[in-house]
Design a protein that fits this description.
The protein is of the alpha+beta class. It has 3 domains: 5-53, RNA-binding S4 domain (Structural Genomics Hypothetical 15.5 Kd Protein In mrcA-pckA Intergenic Region, Chain A); 66-157 and 235-248, Alpha-Beta Plaits, CATH 3.30.70; 160-233, 2-Layer Sandwich (Alpha-Beta Plaits), CATH 3.30.70.1560. It is built from 5 helices and 17 strands. It has helices at 7-14, 19-27, 145-154, 174-179, 213-220, and strands at 5-6, 31-33, 36-37, 44-45, 51-53, 66-71, 80-81, 126-127, 136-142, 160-168, 183-184, 187-188, 193-196, 201-206, 223-233, 236-237, 246-248. The strands form 5 sheets. Strands 6, 9, 10, 13, 14, 15, 16 and 17 form an 8-stranded mixed beta sheet that branches. Strands 3-2-5 form a 3-stranded antiparallel beta sheet. It has a two-stranded antiparallel ribbon with strand order 1-4. Helix 1 packs across helix 2 (19-27). The chain is elongated, with a radius of gyration of 23 Å.
């Protein structure tokens, strides 16, 4: 394939468009080579290979996306830019990145967003909703600067809801103290909404949560934490998203 050229160059030449538009066509999933969709503008194609452009191809600038993941326990979801599978504030001991779970294969089959999955949707993702490696549940990754700014600036004031599995015997006034009266890192905690979901699970709704805070609170009233699962951030719920799968945040959803 010594005479092979970049796909973007071939598309620009074959369909009489600019190189920028050709790259938008390709990254938008509108271009196929020998019947197979190729999303990499730098892919090499030989003269004898058939390059086709979808009839409904749209060269408009591609919109950044936000992905909602149900992270299983054992994966790290850190803070800041995670593109290239690197977290700025990694505190785990070799735990795999939750980012590794984001692929076409783990996309929710009946995602109501109706969005086509593209390779570019997994690039330059930021995560401002950290979750401890041992915890599971809702994590958000975004390319959208507006969503990133919202989460970066407001994560401390957005209410987060967690279901916490506990073991042990709670103290007589334990539930009341969980709601108000405990300290963490030598500082009094503000009022928190805590209630029993069933005999072994507590529901926490709190703001400005700190790593280790919930286990410390439970220990103070005679309980030990078995599992933590985050089910809501602001107004965005985990809902029925299966563990290990993700969906697109819809345009009308707001944190």
């Amino acid at each position: 394939m010594d005479d092979a050229i970049r796909l973007a160059k071939r598309v620009a030449r074959q369909f009489a468009c600019s190189r920028t538009m050709a790259e938008q066509y390709i990254e938008g999933g509108w271009v196929s080579v020998d019947g197979q969709v190729i999303e990499l503008p730098g892919a090499r194609v030989a003269p004898q290979q058939a390059v086709a452009l979808a009839q409904d191809a749209n060269p408009m600038e591609l919109t950044p996306v936000t992905l909602v993941l149900n992270k299983p326990a054992g994966y790290e979801a850190g803070l800041g830019l995670e593109a290239g599978h690197t977290s700025h504030t990694s505190r785990s001991q070799g735990a795999p990145q939750a980012l590794d779970l984001l692929s076409a294969a783990t996309h929710l089959a009946d995602d109501p967003a109706g969005q086509r999955v593209l390779l570019r949707h997994f690039r330059a993702l930021e995560c401002f909703t950290p979750l401890p490696t041992e915890a599971s549940g809702l994590v958000v990754y975004t390319q959208d600067r507006r969503v990133a700014r919202k989460l970066r600036e407001d994560i401390e004031v957005l209410e987060q809801e967690c279901i916490v599995e506990v073991a042990g015997q709670i103290q007589e006034d334990g539930l009341q103290r969980l709601c108000h009266g405990l300290t963490f890192n030598d500082r009094p905690l503000p009022p928190i909404k805590v209630s029993w979901q069933n005999e072994t699970h507590l529901r926490f709704a709190l703001k400005g949560i700190r790593p280790g805070q919930i286990p410390s609170m439970c220990e103070a009233v005679g309980l030990s934490v078995v599992d933590i699962r985050r089910i809501r951030i602001g107004r965005v719920p985990l809902a029925r998203l299966p563990e290990g799968q993700w969906r697109y945040l819809q345009p009308w959803e707001r944190f």
